[in-house]
Amino acid sequence: MENQFWHTRWRNNEIGFHEPVVHPLLERHWERVRVGAHSRVFVPLCGKSLDMVALCEHGHDVIGIELSPKAVEAFIAEQNVPARQDTVGHFDRHRAPGYTLLVGDFFMLDRHALGAVDAVYDRASLIALPPQMRQRYADALRNLLDPGVQILLITLQYDVVGFEGPPFSVSNSEVQALFGDWCAIKHLETAPAEVKGHGVAETALLMTVT
Prior knowledge:
- The protein has 210 residues and is an alpha/beta fold.
- Helices cover 28% and strands 30% of the residues.
- It has 7 helices and 9 strands; from the N terminus they run H-H-E-H-E-H-E-E-E-H-E-H-E-H-E-E.
- It has helices at residues 3-11, 24-29, 51-57, 69-78, 111-114, 131-144, 172-179, and strands at 40-44, 61-66, 84-88, 91-96, 99-103, 119-122, 150-157, 183-195, 198-209.
- A 9-stranded mixed sheet has the order 3-4-5-2-1-6-7-9-8, with helices on both faces.
- The protein is globular.
- It starts with a helix and ends with a strand.
């Protein structure tokens, strides 16, 4: 899946993957992530997610990365965030109280541009990637995180017949294969949901970098 796919989706406002509300699994399980106020929470492939607003309201400093500048511009405008823009490494950076939003390719991100983070929230990253890109994503994330960092990961599982992603179905066994060598993984909840008119199961997992 090429970067141009996502640029086109945002340019044409084909963003059915964007949720107009805070994700209920985030609301139910974020307290399980052991971070205090003013912790830095990384949100990869963040789009213009309202989940970032919820994390900021918890008192965290949110660090998002997003390929599409239109997504970040939309978030800044819709949330009335007084952002200042500069550059760091390969990225345009938008900074405002509670938010640091990087525009660019996640796979070019390094620790210098990201900085140290205390937790990760992934609702729309892993499930946005086709199977052939997921190992690369897991390896890149591993290189960015220190031991002890916790990840709240939300995945989808569904019958792939007649349902073309993204979002893609990612099984618990695949999560174990991708992350099990370097994370302790705890199942929190699996709940029914609906995506594109299809019934799916959403799973919240708490992963701790070892």
